[in-house]
Design brief:
alpha+beta; 17% strand; 6 helices; single chain; six-stranded mixed β-sheet; two-stranded antiparallel sheet; 2 domains; 53% helix; 226 residues; binds zinc ion
């Protein structure tokens, strides 16, 4: 009947239970009933255990598991209001709540790890698919896997990236391979280092890039004819 919203005060001055006369020191719990101050024993709450606020999930679960609970408040002199400090709940209910919290943490950890595993798997699948696409267009390319891994890093984290057919578009493959050739097989990076404009440097190495791309493409034709 009175399991809802029982309020217990943490007292700021020494007091006394009006039923049993027990001394209630500053900092102890007290329940007011019809203007009378009661110790927890006389209020029928001394079987409950204190759980201080701080972990909202733990508090919520302890309340849910406990047949009876009380809110514990203390008067704040600075804020001029009662402030919630915690709850009183059945010890078994608090134990149970702690177990549920731990189980929850284990579950969350497993979910996080599962998500990470799925991401790694998606990345691997993407690298394989990207490598295959490169080799379709450039069968002579000896660095397809390396280019694919780099592309995977570039696109990493983009929504739907691994399943995105667009990112395996021939145009995207060509751009990735061309950029790789420019950086790895030409003096492009040196020119940039010397202060060349990117457009200027790109034009300077263009023939070299195309030459290599054609060589990597040509392997396809050779194999096609074979
Ligand atoms: Zn008492």
């Amino acid at each position: 009947m009175e399991s809802q919203d029982i309020v217990v005060f943490i007292i700021r001055r020494d007091s006394q239970c009006s039923v049993c006369g027990k001394e209630l020191w500053r900092g102890s719990f007290l329940r007011l009933e019809k203007e009378k101050a009661l110790c927890l024993a006389c209020a029928g709450l001394d079987h409950l255990e204190y759980l201080s606020s701080g972990d909202a999930a733990l508090t919520r679960r302890a309340i849910k598991n406990s047949k009876i609970h009380a809110k514990v408040v203390r008067w704040s002199a600075t804020r001029k209001r009662y402030e919630r400090q915690g709850i009183l709940a059945e010890p078994a209910a608090i134990d149970q709540a702690e177990k549920e919290n731990e189980a929850d943490a284990v579950l969350r950890k497993a979910r996080r790890e599962g998500a990470r595993d799925r991401r790694i798997k998606a990345d691997q699948q993407y690298i394989v698919a990207f490598t295959k696409k490169i080799l379709e267009l450039f069968p002579g390319c000896p660095e397809a896997a390396q280019i694919a891994r780099h592309a995977c890093e570039l696109y990493s984290g983009r929504v739907g990236r691994s399943g995105d057919a667009k990112s395996l578009d021939p145009e995207v493959i060509l751009l990735a391979v061309r950029a790789h050739v420019r950086h790895v097989h030409t003096s492009y990076d040196d020119l940039i280092g010397k202060g060349w404009e990117p457009g200027e440097a790109r034009r300077a190495v263009r023939d070299r890039v195309e030459e290599i791309l054609n060589r990597w493409r040509a392997a396809a034709e050779k194999r096609g004819r074979a």
